[in-house]
Write a structure and sequence with these properties.
Amino acid/polyamine transporter I; OB fold (Dihydrolipoamide Acetyltransferase, E2P); alpha+beta
Length: 606
């Protein structure tokens, strides 16, 4: 079967940029920068870009083109061509598994942006009444968002009909583009969506920076920009303030953002690059898409959400918003801000349409590895492969829609754990098994730009070491047992919706944080209690996770009753296990499919 090709170079660049530019550029990045040292965060961010992001991006482009010229559009075949070991193709299953699972919950989240853009344009968002404070408006939009995505019960979520309808529309739109193929579908979408995305983003940046001081004379967009970019050289780490560049949490955050922003370690870049001809350039083209992504993230993404939040909520309010996560920033904070503006519904619709285009171009990219696998190994047509994938997504997404915590569990394993693991495997295979010299030559075949020799040594030695340290740090940060301390409460201070609890543990003091809405448990005499029931001077057990965020406070009686389990106020165990079993089943099924595909391929050769 003849493989598809990109019709134009500009189409390829825009499609690759669309793969990289997603929701993380406009939501995750500003929140990460605000919480992790502002301008100081950009030092590990750009170091991660140079030592890991750019080398890995070039390698994935070259590996994709290498595999495509040999008839493979996915990582199982590419890995096997570079390393003739039986296990190689099964390691490559990660390059299909990760984007396919991400797409399950990404489609649902993407549908929220489409739904909100339509509802904003129709004027169906909550109304701001005269005399309402920003906190009251935030609360109203928070309730609206909760009702839109569904109210959580003990195990299940009761989804709203509106959200479900927009999910079906979004799934249909993705299926339509995939069925049209690479040149007539993905490339055409990129040529339309990417210019519109940049236009909408620039419109919002201009509107944000013409806001002035709406609420307080010191709350301006420029103050917000300074808040985001002014270096904070000392940040909190385990209850103490340390020099930001010595804070491992900051480095993990910066490196993690690099995976999100460039779509590294997900298998999608290789699949897109597999539709190149043998002598098509990957060096300059790859660097161009990276530059477009960084412009969208650092310049545009950093100039919308946080400056707008500071203008209406102040520095403290903006930091609290950033700490509450990307969904709160997108669907609660920004609609609240637009509600104060003339033509606020229009600007709200522009904001959510911007996010939809970012999500749309990324979601079709994440679907393409499985599309290519079904077409190349099982002989499916584009339409049949797209419909089969649509049916799978339709059924699987119900885990995210109706099971409480389904999105969190999937994102934990394939959105956080998977990409650095696959990236590390890729680098080892390309630079150490296939060979650094051969890989360097492959990267520069037909190149219009020759990389400095610095990147040869970086790719061979520094990048794998960097990835290894990140992976170890990630395991320690996310999989290590949560810290539990026995100490005495010294002070309880209420700061807005965030409470600081100062606890003396031995000869040290910990300043712990808790938001009234983050699910922290307060346990007294074996039962849930209010924080106000705990007194200064009382001896308690406290559980902490990263960033000294409280997971529970308990007296001795309560702690003994929970010592055998973790109390985090998170999802019930049954939904976690249902989702884990689903993920394991899908991974095993993909491994079996790869094995069957190879047997079919070998029998045809004979």
């Amino acid at each position: 079967m003849q493989r598809e090709r990109w019709a134009t170079r500009i189409g390829l660049i825009l499609a690759m940029a669309g793969n990289a530019i997603g929701l993380g550029n406009f939501l995750r990045f500003p929140g990460q920068a605000a919480r992790n040292g502002g301008g100081a965060f950009m030092i590990p961010y750009f170091i991660s870009l140079i030592l890991m992001g750019i080398p890995l991006m070039w390698m994935e482009w070259a590996q994709g083109r290498f595999g495509g010229t040999r008839g493979y559009g996915t990582t199982p075949g590419m890995f096997h061509e570079m390393w003739r070991a039986r296990i190689s193709k099964y390691l490559g299953v990660l390059g299909i598994f990760i984007p396919t699972i991400i797409m399950i919950y990404y489609t649902y989240i993407e549908s929220w942006t489409l739904g909100y853009s339509v509802l904003a344009l129709l004027g169906k968002m909550p109304k701001v009444e005269a005399g309402m404070s920003p906190s009251e408006v935030l609360s109203r939009f928070e309730d609206y968002f909760s009702s839109y995505i569904g109210r959580s019960g003990e195990w299940f979520v009761s989804v709203s009909p509106t959200a479900y309808i927009f999910f079906l529309i979004t799934l249909a739109l993705n299926t339509w583009i995939l069925a049209r193929g690479v040149a007539r579908g993905i490339e055409v979408l990129a040529k339309i969506a990417m210019p519109l995305l940049f236009i909408l983003a620039i419109v919002l940046v201009i509107r944000v920076f013409t806001l002035g001081a709406k609420v307080h004379p010191d709350w301006t967009p420029l103050k917000g920009l300074a808040f985001l970019w002014e270096p904070k050289w000392f940040t909190e780490y385990h209850g103490h303030y340390v020099f930001t560049l010595f804070n491992p949490t900051i480095w993990l955050a910066a490196a993690g953002q690099m995976f999100f922003t460039l779509s590294l370690g997900m298998g999608a870049i290789q699949t897109y690059a597999s539709y190149l001809d043998e002598n098509d350039d990957v060096m300059l083209t790859g660097l161009t898409t990276t530059s477009a992504n960084e412009f969208a993230e650092v310049v545009l993404g950093g100039s919308i959400a946080i400056p707008a939040a500071v203008t209406f909520l102040g520095l403290t309010g903006a930091l609290e918003v950033a700490a509450k996560g990307v969904f709160y920033l997108a669907f609660v904070s920004m609609p609240t801000i637009f509600s104060y503006l003339p033509a606020g519904n229009l600007f709200g619709a522009i904001w959510f349409l911007l996010l939809f285009f970012a999500g749309y171009t990324s979601s079709v990219a994440m679907s393409q590895p499985m599309m290519a696998f079904l077409q190349e190994h099982f002989g499916m047509s584009r339409v049949h492969a797209a419909l089969s994938l649509c049916a799978f997504y339709f059924l699987a997404t119900h885990i995210c829609i109706f099971l409480r915590g389904g999105v969190d569990v999937m994102d934990f394993w394939v959105g956080t754990f998977g990409p650095p693991l696959l990236a590390l495997i890729e680098v080892i295979i390309m630079m150490w098994i296939f060979g650094a010299d051969k890989m360097w030559e492959e990267m520069h075949r037909g190149a219009e730009l020759r990389a400095p020799r610095f990147f040869y040594y970086t790719s061979k030695y520094v990048t794998p070491l960097f990835l290894t340290l990140i992976f170890i740090g990630w395991i320690y940060q996310n999989l290590a047992p949560k810290r539990v301390f026995n100490g005495v409460i010294e002070q309880i201070e209420y700061v807005g919706e965030t409470t600081h609890v100062k606890v003396t543990v031995g000869d040290k003091q910990l300043i712990c944080k808790v938001s009234q809405k983050d699910g922290t448990k307060f346990l007294r005499n074996g039962k849930e209690a209010d924080l106000s029931e705990f007194k200064v001077g009382e001896e308690v057990f406290i559980g902490l996770r990263k960033g000294n965020i409280l997971t529970f406070i308990a007296d001795e009686v309560s702690y003994r009753s929970i010592i055998a389990r973790t109390v985090e106020g998170q999802q019930p165990g049954i939904t976690i296990w249902i989702t884990r079993i689903f993920l394991l089943t899908v991974f095993v099924a993909m491994c079996v499919a790869v094995g069957v595909a190879w047997r079919i391929r070998e029998s045809v050769k004979r």
